[in-house]
Specification:
The structure holds two protein chains of two kinds. Chain A contains five helices and no strands. Chain A is mostly helical. The longest helix of chain A has 23 residues. The interface between A and B is large, with 77 and 72 residues.
Chain lengths: ~130, ~240
């Protein structure tokens, strides 16, 4: 269980903690986010491909569920790549990852509330003001 | 260095994996973000608050669009450019997206060279990022000018729902402001890197504290976040 000090971390410097120096060395290694340049270039390339994909969805005038699902898929993949690799979230300690990733998920609850609210507003407008202006 | 709970023997006590580890990190009398410096944790928390701000902007835009009786203008046509006798949909937005993604790539590599203490490459990549960011803002200024000339206002536009203009100026304006602040921030940090402040331990003008190469990574977090916000604006405002 000695490696558990650095969960989800690429640099496993902490094997069988020998004592003070090992622990300190491990924490130093943790704060350094250094990865091969190839990784960044690959992610960069994928971001280009996914953006081009989003653009093509519009260019070829895809409509309906196919359009929405493709747009959302490309968006989520791009956001995931940026956060995980460029912002080094994949190598951070879980205590930080959850503190940052979980709260925005609750925005979806807000979205659901506002969808219901705006449908009600539209219903009221159509009922009392008609379809014009 | 208050890292993990320090035992009597002086070394860090092992933490369990997964949720149990999170609970242990967040338990009382603990420093929650153990291997994360204050600067980085604060930037993440600031970015979380910024996420809510942009989230609320996009939400209010969604509410306005869903509740209006008037048809929403088609962004594909509104943002088309007339090039070589043909209307190319969203072309300016596509170029802006590629510019911003490229700036994210150069920034990520600047962070990498920063940890290798390669002053020249780090500063050069950061300045290249700043140039790409400024290019983005310039293209946005062009986009705004064009739309204002076509009659788009926060209270109306020639193509449909009046709320289109207010949503557009609010969302892209706030994002453009973030990019502009980021460009200034990039130039400040790049200058410090190039001057060797992080090697000599020179004290900062504003805080009187010694800087570290981690500042480049913290700067990078902000910059990648600006790119991240654009991913959502691109999907929800321009493509939807």
């Amino acid at each position: 269980m000695s490696e558990a000090t650095v969960p989800a971390n690429g640099q496993h410097a902490l094997h069988a903690a020998h004592g003070h120096e090992t622990a300190v060395a491990a924490t130093h290694a943790d704060t350094h986010q250094e990865h091969p340049i190839k990784l960044y270039l690959v992610v960069w390339g994928w971001l280009f491909v996914l953006s081009a994909g989003s653009y093509m969805v519009d260019y070829f005038h895809l409509q309906g569920y196919l359009r929405w699902s493709l747009i959302l898929l490309f968006m989520v993949l791009k956001a995931g790549l940026i956060v995980a690799v460029f912002m080094h979230m994949a190598w951070e300690r879980l205590a930080l990852v959850y503190a940052i990733i979980v709260p925005p998920v609750f925005v979806l609850v807000f979205v659901a509330i506002m969808v219901i609210e705006s449908e009600y507003t539209l219903f009221s407008r159509l009922t009392f003001f008609g379809a014009g202006s | 260095m208050a890292e993990t709970t320090i035992s009597d023997a002086g070394y860090a006590t092992p933490r369990p994996d997964g949720l149990r580890g999170i609970a242990a990190d967040w338990a009382s009398d603990q420093r929650a973000f153990k291997n994360v410096s204050w600067g980085k944790a604060m930037m993440w928390i600031f970015l979380l608050s910024d996420t809510f701000i942009f989230g609320c902007f996009l939400l209010s835009y969604m509410t306005a669009r869903m509740s209006t009786r008037v048809p929403w203008p088609n962004p594909s046509e509104v943002f088309a450019l007339h090039i070589g006798g043909a209307d190319i949909p969203l072309i300016l937005i596509a170029i802006m997206t590629f510019v911003l993604i490229s700036s994210s790539g150069t920034m990520a590599m600047a962070v990498m060279f920063g940890y290798r203490r390669d002053r020249r490459k780090t500063a050069a990549l950061m300045l290249l990022t700043a140039v790409l960011g400024a290019t983005f803002v310039g293209m946005q200024a062009f986009e705004w000018t064009k739309l204002i000339q076509e009659g788009v206002r926060p209270w109306g536009n020639p193509w449909g729902a009046a709320q289109f203009g207010s949503s557009f100026f609010m969302i892209t304006g706030f994002h453009g402001t973030h990019v502009t602040i980021g460009v200034i921030f990039l130039i400040i940090i790049a200058r410090k890197v190039l001057r060797g402040d992080y090697d000599t331990g020179a004290r900062g003008f504003f805080t009187s504290r010694r800087g570290q190469y981690e500042s480049v990574e913290i700067m990078g977090l902000y910059w990648h976040f600006v790119d991240l916000v654009w991913v959502f604006i691109f999907a929800f405002f321009y493509l939807w």
